[in-house]
Structures are given as C-alpha cells and as structure tokens.
Amino acid sequence: FLGSGPMSLLGVALATWLKHRYGDGVQSVEAYAIGAALILGGLGLIAKTLVKVGIQPDDAPFLLSRRDRWVAFAIGAVFGFVVGLTSVGSGTFFGLVMVLVYPLTVPKIVGTDIFHAAALLWVAGVGHLVAGNVDLRAMFWLLLGSIPGVLLTSKLTLRLPDQALRLGLATVLMLSGVKLVNTPGADWIVLAGFIAGGIVLAAWGIRELREQRREAPLATELPLS
After folding, report:
1. For 203-211, which contacts have Cβ atoms below 8 Å and span 24 or more sequence positions?
2. Which of 19, 122, 165, 211 is most buried, most CB within 10 Å of its CB?
3. Is the pTM of this model over 0.90?
4. Can you say how many angstroms the Cα of residue 93 is from the centroid of all Cα atoms in its chain?
C-alpha cells in the first residue's frame, strides 16, 4: 500500500489529463494493452501450475525479507499506477504477480489481495470522485450484487484445492483479457468460459456432498470411548 496508494493518485491525475487532452479514444488503447497482458499472464499462471517449477505454494508462515519488501513496494507502485489510470488491476495484476513471486497459497493471496484492494481503491476512488468520474447510482447497484458474491466466494476459497483455485484465477484473467481486447465473438467466449466454470464447480460440489454423506454414517458408527 505504501507504493500503490500514492501512485494510484498519480494514475488518476494522468487519466484525467489524457481524457481532457485526447478524449475517450485513449481508453481503447489502454484496454488493448491491458487485455493482452492479462491473457499472457493467465497463460503463464497455467504453465506454472501444471509444470511445477520455481516457487511453490506453502501454508507455512511467510516472513518478508528485505528483498521481499522492496519487491512488494515495486509491485504496489507499478500496478497502483495502473489501477488509478485505468481502474483495472485491483484484483488481477496484484494477485497474479503475488502467485508468481511469493510462496503463498491461493486463499492467502486472495485474502491479502482483497484487503489491499479495499484500502487502495478507497484512495483511487476518492481521487476519481473529486475529478467527477464516478456514477454513484451505478456504484450502488454494483455493490448490491458484489457484496454477497464476495461473501460467498470467500468461503469457497477455503475449501477448493489450491491447484483448482490457480487454474480458476488464470481462466478469469484470460476471459477478462479477451473481453478487453474485444476479439471477434468475445461475449460468446466469455459466456462459454463462465458456463464451463459453473459446470466444473457444480460437479465438484456434488462430489463433495456425496463424500460427506458417505463419511457421516461412519462417524455415527464409531464407538464412544
């Protein structure tokens, strides 16, 4: 946050200047660049998950070294600027880079990323509010749907396998990139991706429910000591 907070305000200032100077056309260029980066990042995360090379996740306590602190500061500064400039990155680039750099499990990365994003987006959001770039009515309806979604998925991350979470994160990154790049049939690709993800999640839930039902009779049959 020490790096991302101030740099997000710089990004807001640059975004406002670019809008006044060049109009809305500059946003399409930003969208293409960020979309391509998200697609490449998602592919890299899939490769890292399947190949099992480099830093692997560990649930043991992780202490930041001097180098780790500077890396975190640099990550925050670079992508905090991106968040302020484009509003993209609070839940994409930060999580992706943390997965690749730090030996943390995905639930810890998701929790850290969300907590950091909450603080960062307050700073960037106030900057955009002052600049007159916020639609408060649209924000209300977004919060109405996103708050229950966050509460639901935060429980799922504690139960899903780490590898499945990584692949899910990679899929979301690539689908976001496809939408930003606006490839032919992007809407259908995104829809198909979410349908496939929903089917996989439903299949996993059914399997977990069946395993719980099989384990329940065994627990009741154990003699009391």
Report:
1. 204/160, 204/164, 208/159
2. 165
3. no
4. 7
